[in-house]
Specification:
327 residues, alpha/beta, Rossmann fold, eight-stranded mixed β-sheet, four-stranded antiparallel β-sheet
């Protein structure tokens, strides 16, 4: 398969800016660059992990890929079609093929609708089923995600958090989707339930040939599920690599910091490992540092890092890194 045929989602120079510029001398600018010149590709059938601290722009990037947030610049190409210039009518066929699983399962479900109605709605909206046949399809979807098919007439508050997330996954699958953005889908769940949902997502990917953009702040979780991982810091991608390469030989100092914060299951190794020392705090996105955004916290920062923004460049081994130490 050619590279072009293998790629399902291609993001080029994506930028998302919120707020407004100053229009008067005494009124400061409130512009926030949530996503800053992001470029990446997601291949068919893979789970592409996106990891970073809270507030770094991961969720905004995921929503911009789905065109739920309109980018300020750049392009999102889905299966060869540039989505960024399409109107709502032209976007409708792509809405069916791209879905999202949200972080908060109760907040993403209408409390006035039964879960069967919520899951069946995409079938009716996209004309995939007639009303008389929709509920049979919903029952099949419930069985697929591990829910009782006879519980379709119940309401969201009657389910546990893990069950509600299964409802959200069933709803994402209802439109025969190909690409799902999973936005922190297990962070609000108990640890034991997290493992069940992660295993369900992996099983569905293999059975249905799905493609995931899996967003999380837990690097250990992303490492378990993903094929490739992108590390994001303050709106920018700083490193992209296969999960084995990234976790065993991280190149960017921020990636090394994240890995140092992941506890090991090996007690002896954990006792011998020096404590992870993190300098400073995440800067405000209203006033990000010049040059490399990470330089105020980086123990290896050079003069060049304070003045010049490092480009995300590809190395000979195929890995991508935005760091002057590796350019």
């Amino acid at each position: 398969m050619s590279t072009q045929a293998r790629t399902l989602v291609q993001v080029e120079g994506l930028r998302v800016v919120f707020g407004r510029a100053a229009r008067a001398l005494l009124r400061p600018s409130t512009l926030v660059v949530a996503v800053d010149d992001v470029t990446l590709t997601v291949d068919r059938g893979e789970t592409f992990g996106l990891v970073g601290e809270s507030g770094c722009g991961k969720s905004t990037l995921g929503r911009a890929v789905l065109q739920l947030v309109k980018p300020s610049a750049g392009r999102v190409i889905f299966d060869g079609t540039d989505l960024t210039g399409l109107g709502e009518r032209a976007m409708r066929p792509f809405r069916r093929r791209m879905q999202m699983v949200f972080q908060d399962p109760i907040g993403s479900l209408d409390p006035r609708m039964s879960v069967g109605e919520a899951v069946g709605e995409p079938l009716l909206v996209h004309g995939l089923k007639r009303h008389a046949d929709a509920m049979d399809a919903v029952r099949e979807l419930f069985g697929l995600v591990g829910l009782d098919p006879d519980s379709t007439d119940r309401f969201p508050h009657e389910f546990s958090a893990g069950q509600r997330q299964r409802v959200g996954i069933a709803r994402a699958l209802a439109s025969r989707t190909e690409f799902i953005v999973c936005d922190e889908p297990v962070s609000a769940l108990d640890v034991s339930i997290q493992a069940q949902i992660v295993n369900l997502l992996e099983d569905l990917r293999e059975r249905l040939g799905l493609t995931y953009l899996f967003i999380a702040h837990d690097l250990a979780l992303v490492r378990h599920l993903s094929h490739r991982i992108a590390v994001m810091y303050l709106g920018r991608i700083v490193e992209v690599a296969g999960k084995v390469a990234l976790c065993e030989d991280p190149l960017h100092p921020y990636t090394r910091m994240l890995l140092a914060a992941v506890p090991s299951t090996d007690r002896r190794r954990e006792r011998q490992r020096p404590p992870a020392v993190v300098r400073g705090e995440v800067p405000s996105p209203l006033n990000p540092p010049a040059g490399c955004h990470f330089h105020p916290r980086c123990p290896q920062a050079m003069r060049q890092c304070r003045a010049e923004t490092p480009a995300l460049r590809q190395r000979s081994d195929g890995r991508l890194v935005a760091c002057h130490l590796h350019h």
